[in-house]
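ok posting inputs for the zinc ion job
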Amino acid sequence: MKNSKKQIAMKRMEILFNNALSNAKNNPGLAQRQAEIAKKISLKFKIKMSFEINSSFCKKCKKFIPPGIASRIRLGSKPKAIRITCLYCNHTYRKIISQQ
Ligand SMILES: [Zn+2]
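and the output
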């Protein structure tokens, strides 16, 4: 079944992403690779990345930017919006936290 394949892919993506997060401090190179694979899986299987995963990638340089390690996160002026600054390319973008 197509759906179960997608579910397995989603699990793999989440596991990879979580591994990337836990490796981010001690092994940034490995974390970067794991995050890239997680992203590839989401593209291949057309899985919508969760907010947590999506916001951990820079919109400009596309790198994995684990919160507090490779990115700075600040609350925006308006409620329900955050500002994320990528420490690799310094790109700042605002993310509106919408309820879906
Ligand atoms: Zn960047």
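notes: The longest strand covers residues 81-86. The CA atoms of residues 17 and 35 lie 6 Å apart.
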